[in-house]
Design goal:
It is a single chain. The relative contact order is 0.19. Helix 5 crosses helix 6, helix 6 packs across helix 7 and helix 6 crosses helix 11. The chain folds into two domains: about 160 residues, 2-Layer Sandwich (Chloramphenicol Acetyltransferase); about 220 residues, Chloramphenicol Acetyltransferase. With about 425 residues, the chain is an alpha+beta fold. The strands form three sheets. Strands 8, 9, 10, 11, 12, 14, 15 and 16 form an eight-stranded mixed β-sheet that branches.
Amino acid sequence: MAKPDSQWYRLDNAGILYSALQREEYSAIYRFSALMTEPVRPAALQNAIDRVLPRFPSFAVRIRRGLFWYYLEPNTAPGPFLKADVANPCQPVRFREDNGWLVRFYYYRNRISLEVFHALSDGAGALIFFRTLLAEYLRQTGISVPAGNGVLDLEEPPRKDELEDAYARYAGRHALGLRRMPKAYANTGTPEPFYTFHVTMGFVPLEKLREAARSYDASITEYLSAVLIHVLLEKQRREHPHKERPVALAVPINLRSWFPSETVRNFITTVRPSIDPALGDYTFPEIVSQVRHYMKLHIHRQELQAAFTGNVRFTKNFFLRAVPVFLKNPVMALNYYLFGVRPYSCTYTNPGAFTVPPEMAPHIQGMEVVLGQATVPRCHCASISYGDIMEITFAGTQAETDTERDFFRFLVREGIPVRIESNR
């Protein structure tokens, strides 16, 4: 397998942030899991990992701290090694552990799980890696799976476009600066002892969910965002605060739909649908309408480009680049709290449908996704669909369960059956 052209990689715009933020109280880790139709064969899966990693050099790295910035370099240490699964997934990455590997692989019965440090890749890039890994695993068990249909060819050297910093490539002339957004309803709860990570999954029929969304003239992402905002508005009201604050979501957007790129690194930005109860009460159909129109108004090429261009300029600022990294990290952490935590009540991400070549489909029965712990004791929400099932996960370190309980109860009242699994 060809080696990457460069012996080190600059972190992209998102990678710089996640590297500066990483600590024990925050996990910039996310997990994808595939439920296979047969029990996992560990030796075959480890062989697949060893075969696939050289094809994805931006995953086969370790992080180093330079004087001014973190950077990535190829990891030549043994591993990463397949492990039996753990009760609390998405544990914070520790740069000096696991031989410096920033990807993890687990198995349990018929489940194969991949965990990725967000500085390496976003969900879309990681799913390309995961799909290719699952294809090679099936080959190792005697099933023929050709390259193509989202499965990369392991005999082909890594393409330069797969490793590009797409933020830098598409940064434009116009930029949005850091804008002060109103403080949102915090949606925090009682913190659990370290490290207790609660994961609750709901499995719903995709067609029923699609019918419900269509009844409001909304997409599935718009509909589920509205459901989450609705239950958080009700939750805030039950708490009788002195002042009710806006309920706002951070919803990641895959930029590859607007700016063509084959990168398997990060290339996302976020939008902020919200409802302000100070303006009065909203019915659920009104919330869906507000979310739907917000998405259509703000998700377009010009605004998305201006948003990430501002971030690119921030990281390229001459004075910031000259500040040592140990002084830079606290400043970036404070900025993240002010602009990435306080203005939001929850994160909701939906990478959409996980598709595979027809040769793979009979051997995979479902998909799951989990986001790691937030910087504060609140839950994140994520969803992914495979076949005719949408899986929706709430995960966090708070003791209370009211957000996920109210969310799934609302779906049931909407006529959408839900099957629940949890590690609580």
